């Protein structure tokens, strides 16, 4: 991939000035709200258990010993360890890394804004995100809020919790020619969401999708919604066809967290994915006690793309793609 | 059997889908916020020419299709097969049936070079050159002087193809034709 003549930046200098201003405004926003900036390490001795995210690693020798460092995919575990150790509400603005395909909206390295608010639930956090965006845009923004079920009913005419497996397979097949032999409900739901729902939400104002199926909780609490349905206290933020942020009313139960981690590691093993050291220090921190909080991770480069009307993520980063 | 991972497929790769050889035109990575990643792959079915999109889980594999494009010169037809010979000096010959030749049949001219697609070593598609020069064997008499104004008339060419030509064209003239659209381009120069 390396070429000696690919020396130039992939963003214009004008774009980089806008980027610098955005970073400054974000810091001012949190400073004004008394949220503490932290910068946890990029390199960690352990990593996440998520079966769908691949991690970059780096090998070196330290004190005569071969050591594998994992590049952080998000500062989530480290920030929660800080919270369990008594930190107040905190935010981090920094680089994260994923061993993924690069493309129009994906880079292997990107800038993430992640923050945790003590004693917030995810509804309060969504409101604060609207405040942040209003501040960045200089105009009042009020995002739409749709539950996962409402979004499916509106754009696919089916209820994601009640539809039979066969109905999901048929719907998936109709839209993508995939799915007749897929027996995993979440896989079918995720594909339907990505191909049918996502392009149709948040076109005018941004849209929060909340109350995900409990099986897609990741690191969120599980709750019973007003229809008696078990859902995850998780939300995602979509704007003009782009996924911008993913947040939770954070799971604080160490046992539940440990079960989910073990289940994900088992899933990785079952699919013969590369083994990695899952960071069990998160469990230890939860055992010590994670305060009630809500947290969210936001893709800063993607936000910049939307604010500046850029089609490609490379155009808002100093160096990207084959120029890094 | 060799195979490609769906996440590694690139434009130009040839793979088997639903039992037919297909050419990959585009591969878009679909990654939900959390969860399974997919690849949305645009394909051209090399048998039917149909272009469509299929979605696969990232990491699933697709069998490679043993498909090769070869330049071949058209020799003759025996009524059942159309015979071609490789132009790479190997003199390798192949007989293509009417299915394989398809619409290209009306553009087959001896000593002209075609792209013959071999699938498992046998021809299954024939693509004519974009432009071909053919003689008019039948058409109404030409109208002298009418070289500019729009009118047209049908003309039968030496291969049997019937195309619309300007009114001034006569039997025996050699025309340059666009095989993709079946349209008259000009009178042939040279030859």
Short descriptors:
heterodimer; A: 324 residues; alpha+beta; BirA Bifunctional Protein, domain 2; nine-stranded mixed β-sheet; three-stranded antiparallel β-sheet; 9 helices; globular; B: 191 residues; mainly beta; SH3 type barrels; OB fold (Dihydrolipoamide Acetyltransferase, E2P); 3 domains; five-stranded antiparallel β-sheet; 1 helix; 16 strands
Description:
The complex is a heterodimer of chains A (324) and B (191). With 324 residues, chain A is an alpha+beta fold. Chain A has a domain at 13-143 and 235-323: BirA Bifunctional Protein, domain 2, CATH 3.30.930. In chain A, 35% of the residues lie in helices and 23% in strands. Chain A is built from 9 helices and 12 strands. In chain A, strands 1, 5, 6, 7, 8, 9, 10, 11 and 12 form a 9-stranded mixed β-sheet that branches. Chain A is globular. Chain A starts with 12 loop residues before the first helix and ends in a 17-residue tail after the last helix. The mean pLDDT of chain A is 95. The mean pLDDT of chain B is 88. Chain B folds into 3 domains: 3-63, SH3 type barrels, CATH 2.30.30.30; 67-127, Nucleic acid-binding proteins (OB fold (Dihydrolipoamide Acetyltransferase, E2P), Beta Barrel), CATH 2.40.50; 131-187, OB fold (Dihydrolipoamide Acetyltransferase, E2P) (Beta Barrel). In chain B, the strands form 4 sheets. A 5-stranded antiparallel β-sheet of chain B has the order 9-8-7-10-11. In chain B, strand 7 and strand 8 (82-86) form a beta hairpin. Classes of the chains: A alpha+beta (324), B mainly beta (191). Chains A and B meet through helix 6 of A and strand 3 and strand 5 of B.
């Amino acid at each position: 991939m390396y070429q000696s003549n690919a020396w130039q930046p992939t963003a214009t200098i004008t774009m980089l000035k806008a980027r610098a201003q955005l970073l400054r405004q974000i810091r001012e926003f949190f400073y004004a709200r008394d949220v503490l900036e932290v910068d946890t390490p990029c390199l960690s001795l352990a990593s996440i258990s998520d079966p769908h995210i691949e991690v970059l690693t780096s090998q070196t020798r330290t004190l005569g010993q071969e050591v594998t460092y994992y590049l952080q995919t998000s500062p989530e575990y480290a920030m929660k360890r800080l919270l369990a150790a008594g930190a107040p509400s905190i935010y981090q603005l920094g680089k994260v890394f994923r061993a993924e395909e690069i493309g129009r909206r994906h880079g292997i390295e990107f800038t993430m804004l992640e923050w945790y608010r003590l004693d917030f639930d995810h509804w309060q956090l969504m409101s604060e995100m609207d405040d942040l965006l209003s501040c960045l845009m200089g105009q009042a923004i009020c995002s739409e809020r749709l539950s996962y079920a409402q979004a499916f009913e509106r754009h696919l005419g089916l209820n994601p919790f009640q539809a039979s497996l066969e109905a999901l397979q048929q719907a998936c097949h109709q839209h993508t020619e995939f799915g007749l032999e897929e027996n995993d409900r979440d896989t079918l739901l995720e594909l339907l969401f990505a191909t049918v729902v996502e392009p149709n939400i948040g076109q005018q104002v941004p849209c929060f999708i909340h109350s995900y199926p409990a099986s897609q909780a990741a690191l969120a609490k599980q709750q019973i919604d007003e229809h008696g349905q078990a859902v995850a206290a998780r939300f995602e933020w979509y704007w003009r066809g782009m996924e911008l942020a993913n947040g939770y009313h954070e799971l604080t139960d160490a046992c539940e967290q440990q079960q989910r981690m073990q289940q994900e590691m088992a899933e990785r093993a079952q699919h013969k994915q590369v083994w990695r050291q899952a960071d069990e220090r998160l469990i230890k921190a939860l055992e010590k006690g994670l305060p009630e909080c809500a947290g969210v991770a936001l893709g800063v480069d993607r936000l910049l793309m939307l604010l500046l009307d850029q089609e490609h993520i490379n155009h808002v980063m100093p160096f990207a793609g084959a120029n890094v | 059997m060799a195979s490609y991972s769906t996440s590694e497929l690139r434009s130009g790769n040839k793979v088997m889908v639903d039992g037919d050889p297909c050419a990959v035109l585009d591969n878009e990575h679909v990654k939900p916020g959390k969860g399974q990643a997919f690849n949305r792959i645009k394909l051209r079915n090399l048998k039917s020419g149909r272009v469509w999109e299929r979605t696969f889980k990232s990491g699933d594999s697709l069998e490679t299709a043993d498909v090769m494009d070869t330049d071949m010169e058209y020799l003759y037809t025996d009524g059942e097969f159309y015979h071609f010979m490789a132009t790479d000096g190997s003199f390798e010959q192949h007989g293509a049936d009417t299915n394989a030749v398809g619409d290209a049949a009306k553009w087959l001219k001896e000593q002209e070079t075609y792209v013959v697609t071999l699938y498992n070593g046998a021809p299954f598609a024939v693509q004519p050159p974009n432009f071909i020069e053919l003689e008019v064997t039948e058409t109404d008499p030409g109208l002298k002087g009418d070289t500019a104004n729009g009118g047209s008339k049908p003309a039968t060419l030496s291969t049997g193809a019937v195309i619309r030509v300007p009114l001034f064209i006569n039997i025996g003239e050699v025309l340059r034709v666009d095989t993709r659209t079946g349209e008259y381009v000009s009178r042939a120069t040279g030859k």
